[in-house]
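User: Can you model how zinc ion sits in this protein?
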Amino acid sequence: MPAKTKSPYLLLANIGQLVTLRGDQAPRRGPALKELGLIEDAAVLCGGGKIIATGRQRDILRHPWLKKNRKKAQELDCRGRVVLPAFVDCHTHPVFAAPRLVDFEKRIAGASYEEISAAGGGIRSSLAGVRQAKRTELADRVLKAFDAMLRHGTATVEAKSGYGLTMEDEIKSLEAIRQAAGRWPGTVVPTLLAAHVVPPEYRGRADEYVAEICDEMIPQVARRKLAEYVDVFCERDAFTPEQTYKIFFAARKNGLDTRGHVGQFTATPLLPLLAFDPASLDHMDCVQEKDVLVLSGAETVAVLLPGANYFLGHKVYPPARRLIEAGVAVALATDFNPGTSPTPSLPLVMSAACTHMKMTPAEAIAATTINAACALRLQNRKGSLEPGKDADLALFDVADHREIAYWFGWNRCVEMIVSGQSV
Ligand SMILES: [Zn+2]
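Assistant: Here's the modeled complex, given as C-alpha cells:
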C-alpha cells in the first residue's frame, strides 16, 4: 500500500484561545510585553509550511481558498484548547556527555558555584566526557535534548558548543549540533562558545587561549559555516571584559554575530559590549542601573535565565520588573546545561519567572516567543502567528493561556505543529 501522504494544508479548528502575538516584528517593551493578540473561538490555516490566515473561526471558514479546497486541507480539532506560537529557546548548552551529579550533591551540602569550580567541578568537569565522546554519540544526546524541548512546546533552539575547548572538540561539538539538527524537525541556531572557561592546559595563560579563539577557531568555524553566533562567558573566573571585546571583534571581522553571558555573579560593564551590536546579553542578575538605561535604547535583547537561579538555589533572581519598566527588551530561556539548569522546559522557566521575578503569565509568553525570536534575529519567521511566517505552533491542553505558567512541572503541551506538519 502506498504511504499516506500528508496534505500541505492544515486547518487548526475549534481553538478556544489563540495567542497570535501579532504586531511589529520587533521586541515588545514595557506595557506592550503583555499584549498577546488573543483571539477566542479561533482557527489557523497553514499551507506550504507557512501561516496563511489566523482569525475567528467563522471568518477563517469563509476564507476564499478554504471554501474551494476544504477537502484538500487536513483538519486538527483543537477542542477548545489554547494554541500559541511554538516557543523559541534562545539560550541552551546541549552538547555534553553526562549529568554533573557530584556538583549537585556538593551544592546541596552547601558549596557555592565558585567553590565547586575551584575544586575542579563546574564547567571544566564536563570537558573530559566531551573530549572522549565520538561526534555521533554527542549528536544522539543533543537530539534527545531537542526532542524533550519539542515535547514541552519548543520548535526553535539556539545551541552552544563550549564543553570541548580545543579547536578539534569545539568543531566536533558544533558538528554534533548540525547532525542533530538534520534529524530534528525544528530550527536550530548554532553558537560557538569556545570562551566558556579557560581550559586547564591554558591555566595562567588565558590571553594565549583568547588568541587561539580569535586567530584560529573563529576563522575556521566561520569558513565552515558551523556557527552563526560567537558567545563569551564574561565573568570573574572566566573571561574579562577586555578579552570579550577581542573575541567579539574577531567574530564580527569573520562575519559572525555576537551574544554574551554577562552579569551572572558580578556586574559586567555593558556599554562597550553594545558597540558590537550583540543580538542578546544573557543572565543580567547583576546589571547596573546606568546599564539598564543604556540597554533600554538598544536593539539587544536581555535574556533572563531563572532556571539557573532555581537550580543553584539562589534567593535572588534577575530584576525582570526593573528591566521591563525601563523599556529593555526582555526574553526568557532555559539555559539547558548539565551544571546549572538541566531542564528542557520553557513552561517551567515561565513559572519561575512569574513566581520569583513577578512577570505576568502574559509577559512570560511574549518573552519565550516573539522576544526570544528577536534575541536570535528570527523575528521575521518565528515568534508570532501571522500570514507568511513559519507555521510552528504549540497546542496546550488548557483552556486559558495563563495556565501554561501555572501548572509547574506538569507538561500540558499535547501537540506540536512544525513547518505546518504535526510532529
Ligand atoms: Zn549559558
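A couple of observations from the model: The chain has 17 helices and 16 strands. Residues 206-223 form the longest helix (18 residues).
User: Helpful, thanks.
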